[in-house]
């Protein structure tokens, strides 16, 4: 028996669903954090059938709400003894500006604030595991991102692509800080650009655009393989290149590992971003509690 536990978000479709099926086959006990929907229930049943005896839990949560995200984390904390693998995969690219009930911009809430909140809430369980791994799903679009310190990182005027790119850049900074924070502790934190993959992430764009670009995209299985490399690949510690020297704080561009400190324009900002995020979430969770 593998005796490993994984928490994965946004796994009712696309890369997250394929990765969950693979992890279940490998024998991971899974906590699937997904929005409450029929699609999620079906994904849960599909993964359960692939699991062959290991436990699979469906935790319904809308990750755009920090209050709901904190409550979902509490449910996991009450059930799990340790977390060996946390995959912050849920994400969206919203075309129109939308605010959450807590006042955050929607893309930033789901793609950045929720992963931050979950990871920090799970810190005791990650530390309880032997060499826990955190994988944050980023994007090649993070290269175009900008850190805007006003308005809770929310760049104005709104542009969907900018909000998406900014959220993914923030997750890169978060991963960098997390890997330093974990230095000397057994946690390994990396982020990954899975490639341009044919999934629902483009669902808010007209169907003709999706059809047109669809033929150039990777399959969800290929995207999931890229995600799973820093998550579970046993060859990971012996991977050639920089990985041998430092196995945490990397940005995987598909399967190529690059040091985050070298690709972030201002790595020293990671601390400032971390502090500001923590303050925003503290205020929001106290006020909205
Ligand atoms: N596809 C690509 O080309 C590409 C490239 C770079 C990075 N990525 C990243 O890869 C990750 C997975 O995306 P994908 O391509 O597999 O697309 P996808 O099939 O659309 O998956 C996104 C997942 O996130 C979930 N999600 C969105 N908003 C949520 C919310 N408020 N609460 C809970 N879950 C929510 C979705 O659930 P619902 O069905 O309930 O909305 C879905 O399960 C994302 O972080 C994405 O940004 C994708």
Walk me through this protein's architecture.
- The chain has one domain (5-288): 3-Layer(aba) Sandwich (Rossmann fold), CATH 3.40.50.
- By secondary structure, the protein is an alpha/beta fold.
- The protein is 45% helix and 13% strand.
- The longest helix has 22 residues, at 160-181.
- NADP nicotinamide-adenine-dinucleotide phosphate (NAP) binds at residues 10, 12-16, 34-35, 37, 39, 62-64, 89-92, 110, 137, 139, 193-194, 196-197, 199-201.
Blueprint of the fold:
Layout: E1 5-9, H1 14-26, E2 29-34, H2 38-51, E3 56-60, H3 66-79, E4 85-88, H4 106-121, H5 123-128, E5 133-137, H6 160-181, E6 188-193, H7 207-214, H8 220-232, E7 250-253, E8 256-259, H9 260-263, H10 269-288
Parallel strand pairs: 1-2, 1-4, 2-3, 4-5, 5-6, 6-7
Antiparallel strand pairs: 7-8
Helix pairs in contact: 1-2, 1-8, 3-4, 4-6, 6-10
Bound molecules: NADP nicotinamide-adenine-dinucleotide phosphate (NAP).
Give the amount of beta strand, in percent. 5-15%
Count of discrete structural domains: 1
Using the coordinates shown, work out and report the CATH topology. Answer: Rossmann fold
Q: Please summarize the sheet with the most strands.
A: 8 strands, mixed
Bound molecules: NADP nicotinamide-adenine-dinucleotide phosphate
Number of strands: 8
Q: Could you tell me the radius of gyration in angstroms? A: 18 Å
Discrete helix count: 10
Please estimate the helix content: 40-55%
């Amino acid at each position: 028996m593998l005796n490993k536990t994984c928490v994965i978000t946004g796994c009712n479709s696309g890369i997250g669903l394929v990765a969950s099926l693979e992890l279940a086959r490998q024998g991971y006990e899974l906590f699937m954090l997904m929005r409450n929907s029929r699609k999620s229930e079906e994904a849960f049943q599909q993964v359960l059938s692939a699991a062959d005896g290991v436990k699979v839990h469906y935790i319904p949560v809308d990750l755009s709400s920090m209050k709901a995200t904190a409550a979902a984390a509490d449910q996991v904390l009450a059930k799990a003894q340790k977390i060996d693998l946390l995959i912050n995969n849920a994400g969206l690219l919203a075309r129109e500006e939308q605010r959450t009930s807590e006042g955050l911009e929607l893309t930033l809430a789901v793609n950045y604030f929720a992963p931050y909140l979950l990871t920090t809430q799970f810190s005791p369980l990650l530390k309880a595991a032997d060499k826990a791994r955190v994988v944050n799903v980023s994007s090649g679009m993070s290269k175009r991102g900008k850190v805007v310190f006003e308005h809770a990182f929310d760049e104005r005027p709104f542009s969907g692509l900018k909000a998406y790119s900014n959220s993914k850049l923030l997750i890169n900074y978060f991963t960098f800080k997390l890997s330093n924070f974990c230095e000397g502790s057994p946690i390994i934190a990396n982020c990954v650009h899975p490639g341009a993959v044919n999934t629902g992430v483009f669902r808010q764009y007209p169907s003709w655009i999706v059809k047109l670009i669809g033929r150039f995209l990777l399959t969800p299985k290929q995207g999931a393989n890229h995600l799973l490399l820093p998550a579970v690949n046993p060859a990971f510690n012996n991977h050639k290149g920089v990985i041998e020297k430092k196995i945490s704080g990397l940005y995987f561009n598909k399967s190529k590992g690059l040091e985050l400190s070298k690709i972030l324009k201002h790595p020293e900002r990671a601390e400032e971003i971390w502090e500001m995020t923590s303050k925003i979430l503290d205020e929001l969770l106290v006020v909205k509690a």
